[in-house]
Design goal:
By secondary structure, the protein is an all-alpha fold. Helix content is 70%, strand content 0%. The chain is built from four helices and no strands.
Amino acid sequence: MLRLIARGYAYKEIAKQLFISVKTVESHVSAVLRKLQLSNRHELTRWATARRLV
C-alpha cells in the first residue's frame, strides 16, 4: 500500500487493486502517517523515496 500511495495512486484506485474498501485504505494510511509522525501523503512519498521504497 505504501508503494501505491507513494506512486500517486488515489485511495479509490488502491482499494480496487487490493480488493478492500476505500475506508480501509484511509485507515491504513492514517495509521502509517501517525506511526511515522508525518502530516500528509506528500511527506510520506518523500519519506519512501528517501529510503528507496518506491
